[in-house]
Amino acid sequence: MRERQRYLFIRILEACNADCFMCEFALSRDAYRFSLADFDDLLPKALAAGVGYVRFTGGEPLMHQDVVDLVAAGTAAGMRMSLITNGMMLPRMAGRLAAAGLAQVIVSLDGGSGATHDVYRRSPGMFDNGLRGLRAAAGLGVLTRVNTVVGPHNYTEVPLLQQVLTEADVRQWELSALKLERAITYPDPGHVREVCDPVYEADPHSLLVPLGKRFYGDTAEEQQRYFTRSLTPRASRPLCHVVDDVIYVDGRFGRMYACSCLPHREDGDTPAGGAPLRENGTVLLDTPVFRAHADYFRENGPALCGGCSTTAAGYSDDVARLGSVPPWTY
Description:
The chain is α/β, with parallel strands linked by helices. It is built from 10 helices and 11 strands. The protein has helices at 36-48, 67-76, 90-99, 114-120, 126-139, 158-167, 189-200, 220-229, 288-304, 310-322, and strands at residues 6-11, 51-57, 80-85, 102-108, 143-150, 172-177, 246-250, 255-257, 275-276, 278-279, 282-283. The strands form 2 sheets. It has a 9-stranded mixed sheet. Strands 10-11 form a two-stranded antiparallel sheet.
């Protein structure tokens, strides 16, 4: 019996209705969809592998015509179901998703108001719809979370967004560093700390405090790497524990990874490149190839990962320190 239940992330489509400047899926009309039959095939293997939590990602999952049925199927199998969305369609779908058993919803919000967020996402009305959807979901008993991508363009928005999310009774918040295929420069790293340190150090009884590590790092070494080399904070040495608890499935390309950050690497069929989801047409999790991939990053991730998320890094460090972590902290 595993001490901790695992997380299964599934990218169910690549299509998206937002035009975010930092995203490879912006305004995609890709036709791929992860199907109900795919999920029915995967669920027994996930249960056998110790999965207790499933999160649908995209693209924009709410554009999937069967997303409510997918949530219901996972719930019926005993999974706790989650999805991440830009929020545009959430107000009109929150009721059906909650009725299907959705346990958690994550909305991407990058500014403290529509005047900024909608510009960053190049999608008018997205901030207001996202916030309305969060309130509707919370009223239906769904755990609400916001993920914020932070960079030089919007770090000064973070204190205002903290106030907005606190007033909306959002329960969880992740600040993740902007990642681009180039170095990201902050003219004044000291000003980033001056603006954002109080956000992390706030009283959690009065303000919503972000999960995981600071997006620019908790230690002087992490901050030096981030501000000089754009390397985000990662799991502390000696081991990354995320890979023991995560399976990320990219259905379109038929591959699985031991962390949700790893599919964006381009390493072919090396241990860094994940593992095939199917062998001879059959879905198999925890194959020798997958375990070799996970083992590689358990030992090498703390030294070489350059695109870790703040929640993944914090999750690993919490496991190392405490042995267990609360649900949904990754």
